[in-house]
């Protein structure tokens, strides 16, 4: 407790205008004139003790006024130019009851709310306020008081967001269990939280993982719920969003960048170890953990969809709720000034229909997807790739960077093998490619394709089998047997003659034209594991 020495008679003699200071539980009235004198002496560079002796107050009182001047950051000369009433308003220590004429001030909660409207300015709000209150404070004072009011808010509420501009996102630190109804096993799923900056509307999405494909699903679900797309997204530095940050800038996940380009929003990441950059998201994550996840902790959920429905009920309750501090609900604010400021949703959903993650590139540098073959650069042999399949394209990613893409092949057994994906020696022998053989076989019939696959599926002596199949292809082309090869392969498959030499015997002896229900007796020298001299001599005819 501080005890202040004040000459009350002198105070009353100097001015009837008295200012009330609050020192914890102790209050003292000080005449405005004395306050002005203290300000003058402070401007002259006098010490607190010197000033206290000259105006007959304690050094503590001088210190309080000095602190107030530092807080408002207005030059002392400007403060002294103000009228007594303006002086009291500037210093903001409260006024005595006998002061009845003070300049009106606006409801800064309303002002802050209006500032979230796109293209709104503080100057415009002051003009509108002045129209209703002609004797209000000046614009400079209006702006200064608004800034001071903002400082009193919770740090998460100080961030200024324009309507429709910003979506802040984060994952909860806590997960939720999903029980398998058959096996009884439990898997923990992630909880994605998004909050619109201006209205503070919250969306919560349950996701299997924090990987890229689930990350994008969370955004798609969020955009569907709010009925539009914000102009920017502020995210943490998780791998689904940011590959790395450094002096040279931020490297974003290429897939996420594509997603952002498709929806026309910008990606902003927070600085490492600076949670205040997305303080609103941090607060909302805390709200969800304490008001939703804790509430649902005793319930058992057997599917992601069931959990999502339960979460939606609780989040709607939060969005529609009001408090003393915020008498208007998040949902009402959203519909009043933010919903119509969002960008329109794309006409068609984001095209990725399927992801295949962490597939190792084989020695053939090819992948079979939905029955069709696609090549990748041979330099990636042994590396793990992520594969994205759209309605029209197959894309290959290495460490979240797009490496190559192919047009999506229709049907089954097709191949897309690019020369630039091959090493130089393979380009010379492209005809030896399994993919090219399969493509040729598919063009001649299903039985040809099945026979070729049987040969290629033999893991042992794969190179020799590929060479044999190419010789078979050359033999068919030279002898113009394309039209009968499918029938011959049908015969060979029926009687399990799964060697190229066997098929050549069927072709040369026209066995395929005999009824298939008649068992044919092969010569004893013909066997799946034997090769004739003519075959290895290069002349199979």
Summarize the structure.
Helix 3 (48-55) crosses helix 4, helix 13 (279-293) packs across helix 14 and helix 20 (482-494) packs across helix 21 (500-508).
Unreliable sequence segments: 1-28, 93-101, 518-526, 533-541
Give the N-terminus to C-terminus distance in angstroms: 114 Å
Number of helices: 22
Nearest-integer average pLDDT: 78
Strand tally = 17
Domain tally: 5
Q: What is the alpha-carbon Rg in Å?
A: 39 Å
The CATH superfamily of the largest domain appears as Ribonuclease H-like superfamily/Ribonuclease H
Percent helix range: 40-55%
Largest sheet: 6 strands, mixed
What is the fold-level CATH name, i.e. the topology of the largest domain? Answer: Nucleotidyltransferase, domain 5
Secondary structure class reads alpha+beta
Q: Which CATH architecture of the largest domain is right? A: 2-Layer Sandwich
How would you describe the shape? elongated
Beta-strand percentage?
15-25%
**CATH C-level category of the largest domain:** Alpha Beta
Provide an overview of this structure.
There is one protein chain. With 541 residues, this protein is of the alpha+beta class. The protein is built from 22 helices and 17 strands. It folds into five domains: 8-91, Arc Repressor Mutant, subunit A (Orthogonal Bundle), CATH 1.10.10; 108-152, no CATH class; 166-341, Ribonuclease H-like superfamily/Ribonuclease H (Nucleotidyltransferase, domain 5, 2-Layer Sandwich), CATH 3.30.420; 354-421, no CATH class; 430-536, no CATH class. Helix content is 42%, strand content 17%. α17 (434-444) runs antiparallel to α18 (446-456) and α20 packs across α21. The longest helix is centred in the last third of the chain and has 18 residues, at 462-479.
